[in-house]
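Why do we care about 3D structure at all? Because function follows from shape, and shape follows, mostly, from sequence. That is the central idea of this module. The next example makes it concrete: a single protein chain, its amino acid sequence, and then its structure expressed as tokens.
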Amino acid sequence: MSATPPGTSRADRWYERGTRYTWRPAAGPAAGRDVDIFHVEAGDPDADLVVLIHGWPTCSIDWFDVFDGLARGYRVTALDVPGHGFSDKPPDWPYGLDVDAELVRHHITEVLGRDRCRIVAHDRGDSVALALVYQLTEDPDASGLTVEHLVLTNGNIYLPLASLTPFQEMLLDPNQAPAVVEAVTPEALATGMGATTFTPRREEHDPTVAALAATFAHDDGTAVLADTVKYLHERVEHEVEWLTALSRSTLDTTLVWGLCDTIAPPRVVMHVWEHFVRSKPGSNELWFVPGADHYLQNDRPEALLAVVRAAFDRTGPSPPGPTTPLPVPSDAAVAPTGASPIRVDHSH
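And the structure:
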């Protein structure tokens, strides 16, 4: 843990809301090792639990704009997995999706003392959530936790249709990665993301971009980028079996996608919907959010909140079409007719 809090207002406020605990996995590649985990909670402690799982290379601060909105009616929790945000970033930690899925299960059952939850995930967090669902549905020894609803948002959950960035490709190349890690700064990484993954684009001094830079700088987070990005190898190895397990489950599933995303473009979610989710048991829906990019929870937080609440409240299929029109932010790059999230399809 760094001696001083991060240096931007948005990051400061998030940091000050959080607490920490030490996790020591009992099994697996991290067995017997200690790592400190940062987490934030809000809402009625007795309300239904919603778990928010962040992506790469960011952290739980991704949920800043929707956190308190979800806390009106639910108990909401968000944590930083090792190597990200305000959690520990040891150079020799076995960073991986299965390890993080075990952490999420520990966080829910042991730290929060719950045996049921709903999950909303984004980007890399989609893969963590799918790994957790696989563990719970395929492992006869997995018990003590029921996921009642799974919401997956923009992420490369089927990599053959993804568009990895040049930065990701260089980090995955062992010949280029050391020089890239040496050269990148927290500010440059955050500014690059602001210029490519948000709609409208955000500049260096935008509060969201500045907060990302602060979280990357915490505990020298850019030093482990080449290690944490290797989750994509694990994703390639297991994505079909994880999606197949989901397709056999009765878990209610909602897919929500910002339409402006060029990293995890809409073709990714359309493939997953058609081949793994549309015909699965349970109640399942596909939603698009116009005017939102990869970070739809920051671009269109009010739209994501509307979709998540509609998903959690549904008792059966609803016809495709837009929700009640939502106000368009003054700086939005969409026309008023694009303000409403669109229910594209539902399971039959």
